[in-house]
Amino acid sequence: MNQTSNALPVTKIRVGVSACLLGAKVRFDGGHKRNRYVDEVLRDYFEFVPFCPEVAVGLGTPRQPIRLVGTKDAPRVVGTRDPQLDVTDDLHNYGRTVAQQHTDLCGMIVKQGSPSCGLERVKVYSDQGMPYASSRGAFTSALMQSQPLLPVEEEGRLQDPVLRENFIARVFTYARWRELERQGLSKAGLIDFHARHKLIILAHSPAGYRELGRLVARVGSEPLAPLGQQYIERLMQLLAERAPRKRHANVMQHLLGYLRRHLDAGDRAELLDTIEAYRNGEYPLVVPLSLLRHHFRRNPHAWVSQQVYLQPHPRELMLHNAV
Ligand code: SF4
Fold it and tell me: Domain check: are 185 and 152 in the same one?
């Protein structure tokens, strides 16, 4: 993945996807569940790698439906009509195989509700045939255990603007990290990566910001590879937390500090006003961020210009317009 100076990739990011979401007729009934946002909008930025775990383990299409049965923590995946059909181990093995063979994936979009692909709230049935709990699909569960840093989201949850923005920002961040690893992790590379992500980390967690700052300060006095691993594990955890309006507003006020000498009283008041309106829920994030970008274009600042925070994903995706 090559990168432009503002840290956005110029080549598509490889992202796994449940094949039925791209329109492949692989569902148990021979149909598909094409998702237009995934297939039309995200396709411009992601190179999708489709997977259908149920076809991959030999169930064929069409096939009898399967479902989760048993305990919430370790459900079995069995046939709805024929409970003797048990594909739990096959689906787990396939999830692990995909994780081992596709280490270049930077994200995964899965079909909600599926006993194989679902991320959460997949129905678990009792032995008497009643849904009584929920769990995760068997394939996705094994994949996530084998690749715990991989951002994973369901197509249904992508309709929520906050979850959508969060997921896509994590995919782009993980892709930048993978590119850094591909080039060979160096002390300077890790320090620079952290420097560029400081404000986005701060928006998610001030405590995490301090924690990662302390971790990066150990570069040079500890072995680099385990330090880098600790860094990316913690970073991906922090970014998975929601960044509330209050923290975004604080970060933008912090940015305003870099402009103080350049703005007249009117511009400063307008910017402050816009940030406060965002904090109070009157504007989406795109409004104060656009104004900040405008002022930084006219008054460039070296450190600010490298901040991923100002453009964590392509502007054309308009992900800041509804959060
Ligand atoms: S939800 Fe998963 S297993 Fe089911 S059809 Fe789609 S890709 Fe295949």
Answer: no
- Which amino acid does the sequence have at 89? D
Task: Give 206 Cα–ligand 1 centroid separation in angstroms.
Answer: 39
**117 pocket-lining for ligand 1 (C-beta < 6 Å):** yes
57 lines ligand 1 (CB under 6 A): no
- Number of structural domains (the chain) is 2
- How far, in Å, is the centroid of ligand 1 from the Cα of 252? 42
Cβ atoms < 10 Å from Cβ of 84: 6
pLDDT, tens only, 183-229: 999 999 999 999 999 999 999 999 999 999 999 999 999 999 999 99
Domain that holds residue 97: 13-159
Distance (angstroms) between ligand 1 centre and the Cα of 49 equals 13
Tokens 């992508």 locate to 158
Q: Tell whether the torsion through CA atoms of 287, 289, 292 and 298 is positive or negative.
A: negative
Nearby residues of 316 by Cβ (< 8 Å), 6 or more positions away: 44
> Do both 307 and 296 map to the same domain?
yes
Establish whether residue 19 lines the binding site of ligand 1, counting it when its CB lies within 6 angstroms of any ligand atom.
yes
Pick from 242, 106, 247: nearest CA to 163: 242
* Same domain membership, residue 300 and residue 174: yes
User: Has residue 200 been placed in a domain?
Assistant: yes
58-100 pLDDT per residue, tens: 999 999 999 999 999 999 999 999 999 999 999 999 999 999 9
